[in-house]
């Protein structure tokens, strides 16, 4: 079975705010895609598990939340940053909030109790082990009597 991306329906196609479009155009975030903020994700299937790798630069493992609710796997984060600069009689304060959420529908053959997550160098790696019933088995062929 394959993982199926969960895509909630939000907003309207005709709900364009020109100012937001321009802001997104000049945004340096690698996450922004058509108004949604989310990391790029690769999914591959191995013999014993599925591996999900998400590029999440600029975050730490403490910023990231991974949860499973029924058949829904969700990777999310909300990070608030404040930058203050004082120069010759004026103060510049900038606030930035970065958030994303990405959800996937899990196949039935995943052992949800053994899902493992690691974060290193801006990449989140999830191992989604298959149940024993889903793993391929070799059947020995015996000589008939």
Q: What would your notes on this structure say?
A:
This protein is mostly beta strands. It is 6% helix and 48% strand. It has 1 helix and 10 strands. It has one helix spanning 18-26, and strands at 4-6, 32-33, 36-37, 41-45, 49-55, 64-69, 72-87, 90-105, 116-120, 123-129. The strands form 3 sheets. The chain has a 4-stranded antiparallel β-sheet, with no helix packed on it. It has a 4-stranded antiparallel β-sheet with strand order 4-5-10-9, with no helix packed on it. The chain has a two-stranded antiparallel sheet with strand order 2-3. A hairpin with a 2-residue loop joins strand 7 (72-87) and strand 8 (90-105). The longest helix is centred in the N-terminal third of the chain and has 9 residues, at 18-26. The chain is elongated. The two termini are 38 Å apart.
Short description:
The protein has 145 residues and is mainly β. It is built from 1 helix and 10 strands, in the order E-H-E-E-E-E-E-E-E-E-E. The strands form 3 sheets. Strands 1-8-7-6 form a 4-stranded antiparallel beta sheet, with no helix packed on it.
């Amino acid at each position: 079975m394959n993982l199926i991306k969960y895509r909630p329906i939000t907003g309207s196609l005709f709900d364009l705010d020109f100012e937001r479009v321009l802001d997104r155009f000049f945004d340096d975030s690698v996450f922004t895609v058509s108004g949604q903020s989310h990391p790029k994700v690769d999914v591959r299937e191995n013999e014993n598990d599925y591996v999900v790798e998400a590029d999440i630069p600029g975050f730490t493992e403490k910023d990231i939340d991974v949860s499973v609710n029924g058949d829904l796997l969700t990777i999310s984060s909300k990070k608030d940053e404040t930058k203050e600069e004082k120069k010759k009689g004026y103060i510049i304060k900038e606030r930035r909030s970065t958030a994303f959420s990405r959800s996937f529908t899990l196949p039935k053959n995943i052992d949800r109790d053994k899902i493992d997550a690691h974060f290193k160098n801006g990449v989140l790696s999830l191992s989604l082990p298959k149940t024993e019933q889903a793993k391929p088995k070799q059947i020995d062929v015996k000589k008939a009597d």
